Amino acid sequence: MQIIITGHGHFASGMMSALALIAGENAQICAIDFDGADDGSRLATALKKQSNMTPTLILTDLYGGTPFRQAALMAMQDSNIRVVAGANLGMVLELAMKIAHAKTLDSMLDNLVEVGRENIVIFNHQ
Asked: 3-state DSSP: the chain helix, strand, coil percent, rounded to 5?
């Protein structure tokens, strides 16, 4: 089981940098940045190479963006792939802590989305 983070610019590598700073390295999580230099074909090739027919969760930055669309196309062709858009650092940290003990990708998804929502707050100083 593995996690791939992808997104526009340095979103994915930035997430990995923050993850390493807070929780250390995790061999089951990797980053693939999308630089926008093409239509997404290089990203698709990199995603396919990294997923390598193993259960894979792909986290993307933005629903409907090129990284999401490429990941969704892969998921439609491979039942071992799940895709979640709107990733945040709270979600990545949750995965890093729980992936080693998870039985399946699907068992983590509902909780993962809830953790993502819980990490979006409005600070009210009053």
From this structure: 50, 20, 35
